[in-house]
Amino acid sequence: SANRRADNLLGISLSRVSVESLFKVSLLELLNQPEGLPFALQTSGRNRFQCLLKRPKQASIQPRVFTEPVVAAPAAISLNSLHFGDSRVEKAVRQAERLLEKDIPLLIHGETGVGKEVFVKALHQASSRSKQAFIAVNCAAIPAELVESELFGYEKGAFTGANQKGSIGLIRKADKGTLFLDEIGDMPLPTQARLLRVLQERCVQPVGSSELFPVDLRIISATNRSLREQVQLGRFREDLYYRIGGLTLELPPLRERSDKEALFKRLWEQHREPAQWAGLSQEVLALFCRHPWPGNLRQVSSVIQVALAMAEEQPIRPEHLPDDFFVDLEMEPVETPEQLAVDLNDVEDLNRQLQAVGGNISYLARRLGVSRNTLYKRLRQAE
């Protein structure tokens, strides 16, 4: 094979031309030339070239490995990757950094989906406890009657249905590491009293046991409620509130962040497939910036994942977004353009359709239900 520069140098078309007819040498003689040493070649015309022979490199045969593939550990989350210029998030990050190795409890406050657990994971991975366990507990997801046994553990036979071997509980599993208590405002009052004792004495007493087990851990709590109001209503212990709230950090909702656009692009980068490089269209970015995002980052991630599946290799456009995205904008969903019934192998018809849409390759690709790369390849067949 030869490239266009070879065509220009030789002054002839190389399509379906054999080596013997192009050069005054047989193919066997050419292949017997030593690699790396220059030699002369003359074409059927008067052109004479100094040449070097480079043989294709053959990939070495690798033995097949039949063991299970090793799954790579997820990349660590850095604190600086949590913001892209928003002053409120940056302030929370800087304050948290200063308390990384201090025995001062943190309380993270923010709406559902703002990334409280991601924030706490980043704190854990940036601390000296990063090699130890990170245990996350959603206090709202555990039935009230099981909260104490799940957190503090239990002795065998402590209650009907208990595991015969007992359980050490989530607090002891987090020993030497970090325990994250999410939605702590939903924790039952009796459990709050036992947790307060753990924080004060740094010991855990399993359900049904009289033995105390010392623990060394950092406890970080989070809530989407105002715990101060919960205290006033008698739904949260005042002494526990002051024990867990050494420093309260506020994570703003997505609609109030000043770095939204950069955040949308980062989430797209996080969820896309390697072949999906086209990005978010300006129309979609404008819609994203207008959207109130009641589900915050969790909702954005879901919308982008659906849109990527719909768009495939095309830029994400409004018609790729799920219908419920438009409900919060009080807009009608954008209909996907009606697909054209065109034979992709008919290059002349494709060119006519391209002229009809003013040469807009992206729009025609959407109408045909194919990627731009596929359409480009079909159109090049006529060249």
TrEMBL record:
Residues 82-309 form the Sigma-54 factor interaction domain. SMART domains: AAA (SM00382). GO terms for molecular function: ATP binding; sequence-specific DNA binding. InterPro entries: AAA+_ATPase, AAA_lid_NorR, Homeodomain-like_sf, HTH_Fis, P-loop_NTPase, Sigma_54_int, Sigma_54_int_dom_ATP-bd_1, Sigma_54_int_dom_ATP-bd_2. Keywords: ATP-binding, Nucleotide-binding, Transcription, Transcription regulation. The keyword Flavoprotein does not apply. This is Sigma-54-dependent Fis family transcriptional regulator. It comes from Pseudomonas jessenii. The lineage of its organism: Bacteria, Pseudomonadati, Pseudomonadota, Gammaproteobacteria, Pseudomonadales.
